[in-house]
Amino acid sequence: RPDLAAALRELRAQYEALPARNLQAAEDWYRARCASLHERAARSQEAVRASRREAGECRRQLQARVGEMESLRGAHESLERQLQELEERHSVEAAGLQDTIGQLEADLRNTKTEMARHLREYQDLLNVKMALDIEIAAYRKLLEGEENLFSMGSVGLPAMNPLPNPTYSFQPRSSTPSF
């Protein structure tokens, strides 16, 4: 029996040691699992913090871009208004210049017409002058002929003039020159 009692005690000690070992193994597994979960939680928290930082940075960048976009939109609208004002001003200036060009062209036509009229008058006066020069030359020749007659002497002067009254009977020619 003692062997049996000793074997039973040994068995009992083994059975009592087994739950203690199982308890120790369960505690070790639990601690390892908790450490693993704590490590994962720490990594997840760090990832969440990094995501929050990144989200905050993205939010700040988005706000900066929105502000920049609003600023650019305002600048664009201002430039559009300036462009429209410039186009209106240039169209008014262009219309004014077109009016000035039209007025200058009308003045040029009037000046050309007036020049043509003056040219015709000048041509008419030139024709009259030439006719007068021809008449003057004819009178000059007549006077030279008379002077030659006077220089030859006053002999036979009444005989040369068949008219009873010694006056000139020269008729002026027309104003057109005859060549």
Automatic annotation (TrEMBL):
Keywords: Coiled coil, Intermediate filament. Residues 69-128 form a coiled coil. Pfam families: Filament. GO terms for molecular function: structural constituent of postsynaptic intermediate filament cytoskeleton. It comes from the Eukaryota. GO terms for biological process: intermediate filament organization. InterPro entries: IF_conserved (IPR018039), IF_rod_dom (IPR039008), Intermediate_filament (IPR050405). GO terms for cellular component: cytoplasm; intermediate filament; postsynaptic intermediate filament cytoskeleton. Residues 1-150 form the IF rod domain. Belongs to the intermediate filament family. This is AINX protein. It comes from Odontophorus gujanensis (marbled wood quail). The gene is Ina.
